[in-house]
Design goal:
ChsH2_C, 9% helix, binds zinc ion, 156 residues, five-stranded antiparallel sheet, mainly beta, NA-bd_OB-fold, ChsH2_Znr, OB fold (Dihydrolipoamide Acetyltransferase, E2P), three-stranded antiparallel sheet
Length: 156
């Protein structure tokens, strides 16, 4: 089946029987690839600084979205500050969690960027906006170059 027809009138839409084959390749891009390899291989966090305006992107970008200038990779600590958080007591299926999960928006030190990730080694009642946190990574041999290589952030 080939989709070459152009639908102008929505009443012309038809029901398609059977399966539609779809293929895609997801890529995190050049800067994302660099970020995840550094995280996997060296356990280090990378941001990108605009050579013109100095804006520091996290996650890194290969060009500045404000002035379209090139950026350069800069290593950052991976530590940050909780900007907002939410506590989940139930999972996505409505099942009560054994232990609440804390999701935080973290402003990354030395950058203009943020990351959303889990907080660990802290009770929900002890979390506050402005709390300093640092990342806890998987052991090197278990890292895969994914965001889950960061297990969680804990109080610094
Ligand atoms: Zn710039």
């Amino acid at each position: 089946m080939v989709f070459t027809e152009k639908i102008i009138d929505p009443r012309e839409l038809k029901h398609v029987e059977g399966k539609i084959e779809l293929y895609w390749v997801y890529t995190s891009g050049e800067a994302g690839d660099y970020f995840f390899k550094k995280l996997r291989d060296e356990g280090k966090f990378t941001a990108a600084k605009c050579k013109k305006c100095g804006h520091v992107f996290f996650p890194p970008r290969i060009y500045c979205e404000f002035d379209f200038s090139e950026t350069e990779y800069v290593e950052v600590s991976g530590e940050g500050c909780v900007a907002a958080f939410a506590v989940a007591y139930y999972d996505k299926n409505g099942e009560k969690l054994e232990k609440p999960e804390i999701y935080a928006l973290i402003e990354m030190d030395g950058t203009n960027g943020r990351i959303i990730h889990l907080l660990g080694e802290v009770n929900p009642e002890d979390v506050c906006v402005g709390m300093k946190v640092k990342p806890v990574l998987k052991p090197k041999e278990e890292r895969e170059g994914k965001i889950t290589d960061i297990l969680y952030f804990k109080p610094a």
